[in-house]
Predict the structure.
Amino acid sequence: MSSENENKALINEIIELLNNPDFESPEVILLLGSSGAGKSSLVNTLYGVLTGRYYAIAKQGSGETQSVTLDLLRYENCGVKLHRITDKNKRQKMSAVLSKLPHILDCAGLGDENTPEMREIIELLVGGYIRPGTCMDAVVQEQTRRGTGNMKEMFKPQPAWKVSKIVFLQGCIDVIPGNMIQGLNEVLMMYDPVTLVRKYPCQVFVLVTKYDLVKESDVHSVSTSEGKFINNEKFEQKKQEIAKAFCSVGSTKYNMLPWINLTDDVEFTESTIPTKALKFLKKIVEPGTPKMPAPTFREKLEDFVYQMYHEIRRESLHQIHQHNVSFVQIVGFFMVVFLGIIWLLRRDPEI
């Protein structure tokens, strides 16, 4: 199959996935990675592949200026507007599903550290606490002023901003930010103490960027300001290192792809770029982890009462053993909890 036909088939598959009756709402994708990994370039690449015209809608760094993204930016539906799609047939096909394309969140690259401050910033981003357009430097300054752990009081989380999938960009010639990855893992493993359900059940994808610097690949290498190249063997070793770093986060080889961004140095006519981009987009819109229904108020209250019952029971037995509480007090505690459970279970089940 020619590249052109393969790309058309991928577009049709993406449209079919977006048209599925069980499709709920557009995915919200958060781009993470070190400065210079290619986050803003990814936005431009997806935009160029979907519209048929390369245009830098997200400003990119180059040379010593590796990152120029200062605010949290949100690109609705991959930044694509219907009238920007150059191919008439594609524009007609995409018209019905354009509003279902993913929203992309892009912010400045994070440092390679695993600190309470960094984890709080990641949680605010993933949990939909920070409004798009917010200056991230101002968030860090406010965090310093208020103290770590107090930033949630400043924001009201919005369901429409909550991240559903994370795309981590890692350059194949760059050092793997192991501390940042571990911090991300700790945030994604956070759970509700009442329901024991994970707070942020995001699916993680890894794009191994700068694949154009791999020699003897099926992609024509280009000269870069870094002047660095690696061969296929080194590239495969790097992929294994990246996979190992992300194994605790839940990202598998299935969710890791080699990636080339469209830039001024890499021509749009390179056929492998649209194909890889469309394959990635297809993975993003494919059904992932089933979304569990949010627990009702009654379910949360039942769990809370149940846990409190056992907590009071353990504490009461401890106090009895220490001879600190009377028998009447113990009976009183158990009666209150028991009556609370009976009252709860007799309530309207629709609570």
Summary: Confidence is low (pLDDT under 50) at residues 220-225. The domain at 3-285 is CATH 3.40.50.300 (Rossmann fold).
